[in-house]
Every structure is written in C-alpha cells, then in structure tokens.
Amino acid sequence: MNKKIAIRAENLCKSFGDGDSLVEVIKNASFTINKGELIALIAPSGGGKTTLLMMIGCVEEPTSGKIRLGDETVYDDKWLTRETRKIRREKIGFIFQAHYLIPFLNIIDNLTLLPQANKIDEKTAKKKAEELLHYFGIADKAKAMPSQLSGGQNQRVAIARALVNNPQIILADEPTAALDMQRSVDVVKMLKQIAEEQEVAIIMVTHDDRMLPYCDRIMKIKNMATVFE
Ligand SMILES: Nc1ncnc2c1ncn2[C@@H]1O[C@H](COP(=O)(O)OP(=O)(O)OP(=O)(O)O)[C@@H](O)[C@H]1O
Ligand SMILES: [Mg+2]
Questions:
Q1: By CB distance 3.0 to 4.6 Å, which of 17, 65, 83, 154 could disulfide with 21?
Q2: Verdict on whether the full-model pTM lies above 0.90
C-alpha cells in the first residue's frame, strides 16, 4: 500500500434527482492526491466543485464509485462505515468562503470547540489552539471576538480551526473569495506551507487564476470527470 496517498477517487459519480429531473454532476472522476500536496480545483460555476469536495469530505453520498482516504477505503458503492461523522471529525478539516466562526465565542473558544467534541481535554485543546494562533501571527487575538477581527484575520482563525484536529486532509471551498489580492496570496501561501510542513493534502477551490502559481497541481472538472493540467 502506498503510504503517500492521501485521497484516491475511482470512478466517482454523483447525480441528483431521477427520471426526467436527473442531473449528472460528476461522472467517473478518478484521481490520486498525495500527502503534502496543495491542489487547486477549478471548474465553471455549477461545474460540481463543491459537490466533489463534499463527497471527499464524507458529507455528500456519492451515487457510485470508490473513495479512499489515507489507508482507509471509506466508500465503495456505499459508505463502508456507519460513522461518516467520525471520519470527518478525525481526518478532515473544512474551510469555506465565509469563516463561519461562532460570533458569541471568543477566538480561543471557537478553536477549542471541535477538539473538545472529539473528547480531547480542554488543556491540550487550548495549547494546540494557542500554538496555531501563534503560527498564524494572531496570538494576541485569543480573547477577542470574531467581530473585532478583520476579514483576513478571521479567515486565518478559520484555517487554524481546520488544523486544530491534525487532519490528514483539508478541503477548502473558495477560502480566498472574500479577501483582497494580497490577503488571498498570504492565505494560499499559508496553505502551501501547511501542506508541506504537516504532510496534509489540501484541495482548494478557487476562481482566481492568480492563486494557481502557488499550488502544486491544478485539477479541472471537464465533462464531469477530473483532469490534471
Ligand atoms: N442538493 C442538490 N440537489 C440538486 N442539485 C444539486 C444539489 N447540489 C448541487 N446540485 C447541482 O449540482 C451542480 C453542481 O453544483 P456545485 O455546487 O457542486 O457547483 P460548483 O462548481 O461548486 O459551483 P460554484 O462555483 O457556483 O460554487 C449544479 O448544477 C447544482 O444545481
Ligand atoms: Mg461551489
């Protein structure tokens, strides 16, 4: 078994509805992504990017195909585990266009929520969260509320939150869409560094071609399947 593989999809298909209202979105997508890689995922609007991420993230059930995450096959024409939630919590970090921080919790409490849900004790969770805030240059914001941070700072907190569980995979759906050019480049460079240093596989959806040079590979959805450029 190849230990470098973080994500492998084989003939992954997804359609919504049936009969006359059947919409095929992803058809026979097959690809392998290794640990340490930052992948840009591009396709036109409605092209199936979010759907693909949500299948990899064990949120959306595929119609057919196979998904392997690390050394575990999680989907083979059906979920192979009853606990997709557990896989999500333990293996995957999500980052979205909006930061989705909880507005009435301060930054450190936002970061320690998920580890505690995973039954990691509060002290360990807090230490990890503080390390991440330090790493992202916002250690002084630990006690601040999300409304007191800038857009870029909140997005860094959202990235920290995606990392707090030491995931093997990060799925980022247009993480820079709400940021200006300089902040966007900062965030993408940060993701690249995380991928490399922590051997995490990152798939980042982006509509911004200026972010592509910072990514290792570009994956496109073409004719509903995936191709690398
Ligand atoms: N739950 C659903 N039920 C029916 N159709 C859906 C559902 N979710 C997505 N779709 C359809 O699947 C297609 C792909 O949607 P998806 O959100 O994956 O596109 P996208 O590439 O992320 O687009 P965008 O760039 O606008 O975010 C669209 O035609 C959409 O209408
Ligand atoms: Mg989308």
A1: 17
A2: yes
